Amino acid sequence: MLVDSKVEFVLRTGLSCGAESRNESGVNQLPAAKIVERVCSLLLLCGLAFCGGCAAPTSPSPRSFAGFKLDFATPVDAKLQADLEEIDANLRARHGMSGDQAAVGLLDLQSGRLALIHPDREEYAASVAKIGILLAYFQLHPAAATDLEPQVRRELGLMAKISSNEMAAKYSRALGLAQIQAVLSTQGFYDASHGGGLWVGKHYGAGGERIGSPVADNSHAATVRQLLRYFLLLEQGKLVSPVASKTMRAIFESSELPHDQIKFVKGLAGRDVRIIRKWGTWQDWRHDCAVVTGGGRHYILAALTRHPQGDAYLEELARAVDDLVIAKR
């Protein structure tokens, strides 16, 4: 064995080195104090040899994302940025999309690496903005984090996971559009000086009150950066509070409700992944944003598109990004 050979080498070299004195038969004879010193040294060397032979190589532990902050100054990772831009360009070319018709963001929580394409370009959000209603509900009803009625939990799940317009309108009317947007703006999810962000200015469904977004007069709006930030804070337990974040994450999961098999979920079908997400569709606006875990993964992917082939783009984007993330492990 490798360890045995190392120990034998240490013992032989250690006991044979030096000849302080010899007895009558010519054999090395060391003073008692020197023998003790030599034996201690040999034991130490044997221990080092043993450890060196047995220790398995270890990979660096992933950097904790607990303290990661995503704001307008957060730098992208150059290599991940180049990889994401290449994926985006290839997919857009395949589906006849221009650079104005897709915005993408990827945050790998295992490594803290970030990549962004048009992160602060406000888009009409369709149903994606329903996540703003969910946040506002828990911000304005703090007791719900620990004492949520079963019916309310189910209805919020229908809104967040199934994307029910009826449930979204029920809760936006109960909360009030101005109050919802005040929560979003106070928490930095909408900033007109940086392109906009999450905006809820209309009850879902036809007709009724409408408050257009300051940047682009959208009734519902989102940017890639603020979607990534929303789900980052959720994963960190910093969305409203740790216990509220946990409850909101459980609502996104709502295991009793099936995922709509479209966009990112369709693209990742058959893979060892768990997904919480919010998608949106209206005419040519096709969006998805998700937290993907399982099989060594933990990343957030958000994409906003405006093109008839947006769903196909999103499916293929999810597969390509997942392949990229796994390859980096």
Structure description:
This protein has 329 residues and is an alpha+beta fold. It folds into two domains: 2-54; 78-327, Beta-lactamase. Helices cover 45% and strands 16% of the residues. The chain is built from eleven helices and ten strands. The chain has helices at residues 2-16, 32-54, 78-95, 130-140, 150-162, 165-175, 177-186, 224-236, 242-253, 263-267, 310-327; strands at 102-108, 113-117, 123-124, 190-191, 196-197, 199-200, 220-222, 274-282, 285-294, 297-306. The chain has a five-stranded antiparallel beta sheet with strand order 2-1-10-9-8, sandwiched between helices. Helix 8 packs across helix 9. It is globular. It starts with a helix and ends with a helix. 40% of the residues are buried. Residues 1-62 have low confidence and may be disordered.
According to CATH, the homologous superfamily of the largest domain is DD-peptidase/beta-lactamase superfamily
Oligomer: single chain
Briefly note the structural class of the backbone: alpha+beta
Question: How many helical stretches?
Answer: 11
Low-pLDDT runs: 1-62
CATH architectural name of the largest domain? 3-Layer(aba) Sandwich
Write the layout of secondary structure elements.
Elements lengths: L1 H15 L15 H23 L23 H18 L6 E7 L4 E5 L5 E2 L5 H11 L9 H13 L2 H11 L1 H10 L3 E2 L4 E2 L1 E2 L19 E3 L1 H13 L5 H12 L9 H5 L6 E9 L2 E10 L2 E10 L3 H18 L2
Antiparallel strand pairs: 1-2, 1-10, 3-7, 4-5, 6-7, 8-9, 9-10
Helix pairs in contact: 1-2, 3-11, 4-6, 4-7, 5-6, 8-9
Give structural attributes:
alpha+beta, 11 helices, 329 residues, three-stranded antiparallel β-sheet, globular, five-stranded antiparallel β-sheet, Beta-lactamase
